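User: For my dataset I need records formatted as: sequence, then structure tokens, nothing else. Please produce one.
Assistant:
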Amino acid sequence: MNDGVNGSKGNTTEIEMVEAKEARSVHRLSDRTILRIKPVMIAVFRADGEQSAASEPVYSIISTPISAAGAPAAAARPC
């Protein structure tokens, strides 16, 4: 038996990504700061022999968020 994703026990199979469209979400905060966040998928694994309650395959992912913040114009000016 192989170690699974993040050291969990169980067999997993890495699934090759053939296409990715990673959209960025934009959040405007009450202080007018704009946050832009985009998840970047690094790897996807299917848990061999496991299914969800709806009889669908179980997947694990490794991802990292990429973020940027834009300060309001008044806050960005030097004093």
